[in-house]
Write a structure and sequence with these properties.
Layout: H1 2-28, E1 31-34, H2 49-59, E2 64-66, E3 79-87, E4 93-100, E5 106-109, E6 113-115, H3 120-131, H4 133-138, E7 151-154, E8 167-170, E9 175-180, E10 183-189, E11 193-199, E12 207-216, E13 219-224, E14 229-234, E15 240-242, E16 249-253
Parallel strand pairs: 1-2, 1-3
Antiparallel strand pairs: 3-4, 4-5, 4-6, 7-8, 9-10, 9-16, 10-11, 11-12, 12-13, 13-14, 14-15, 15-16
Helix pairs in contact: 2-3
């Protein structure tokens, strides 16, 4: 009995040590690169699953990019490459995330996230979120990239009546995460500015469009879902500020 208890204690301590090592390893990397097409997908970003994966990594402490978005001059071996292995099924859909270093060595593998939902898209979403439970528990905070992730753009304002900024710190990533009032938001870069989404489970792609930001000359304007026009700006901490005076709302930058 004593020998059995001894081995149980050793096994428990070893499990804690390995988990701590994995957590430390993930924190020591600066960014993750998300595959735009997982091995079980027939096309890039099918069901917007890869975009959801990138969003969740950003949400839970990582600096996540698609390959084309990785900032220039960062060290390749400071990053991890993320792929997913999945098995769609009539009864259970499974997804497992695999993180590898620049040499192709496996650094971390999650448990299988599972879903019994029959609809493929909803099943993939639920499975992916289930797989992410491990990262949530780890409380990852990746170290900052050595180069600047944002472009600071100086704007000279000639007409003070315009909705404008003297300095705009525009997000350079395709997707940027924010929070407001304990709710998660996603800012998506577009050809004319940005689209702001609220995360809501069960909605289309788990995202609800809240409005769009247009940038033209020195004007930065937010149009909500009712086409109401409001002033918008990004402060020196890259927070998104919409509105003026007592009606000002600040979305906290999370990336």
């Amino acid at each position: 009995m004593r020998i059995s208890n001894f081995f149980l204690v050793v096994f428990f301590c070893l499990a804690i040590t390995l988990n701590s090592f994995s957590q430390k390893s993930l924190n020591d990397y600066s960014y993750v690169v998300i595959s735009e097409q997982f091995e079980f997908q027939t096309e890039k970003d099918k069901y917007q699953l890869n975009s959801l994966t990138k969003f969740l990594f950003n949400k839970y402490g990582f600096h996540a990019f698609f390959n084309a978005e990785v900032p220039e001059n960062v060290k390749r071996c400071d990053g991890l490459w993320v792929d997913a292995e999945g098995t769609p099924g009539f009864i259970i859909t499974k997804i497992q995330l695999v993180l590898r270093d620049c040499h192709g060595n496996e650094v971390y593998r999650t448990k299988f996230g599972k879903s019994k939902i029959k609809d493929y898209k909803e099943a993939y979403y639920e499975s992916m979120r289930d797989a992410f439970e491990e990262f949530i528990a780890m409380d990852i905070q990746q170290k900052e990239l050595e180069n600047n992730l944002q472009n600071s753009l100086k704007i000279i304002v000639s007409d003070p009546s315009m909705y404008s900024l003297t300095t705009a710190n525009f997000p350079n990533s395709t997707y940027t995460s924010y929070t407001y009032s304990n709710q998660n938001f996603l800012l998506r870069k577009t050809a004319t500015g940005y689209s702001l989404y609220m995360e809501k489970t069960g909605a289309n792609n788990d995202l609800v469009l809240k409005g769009k930001i247009t940038i033209k000359d020195a004007s930065v304007i937010f149009y909500d879902s009712q086409q109401n026009k409001l002033k918008a700006e990004f402060d020196e901490f890259y927070n998104l500020i919409i509105g003026e005076g007592t009606h000002k709302v600040t979305y906290q930058y999370q990336n």
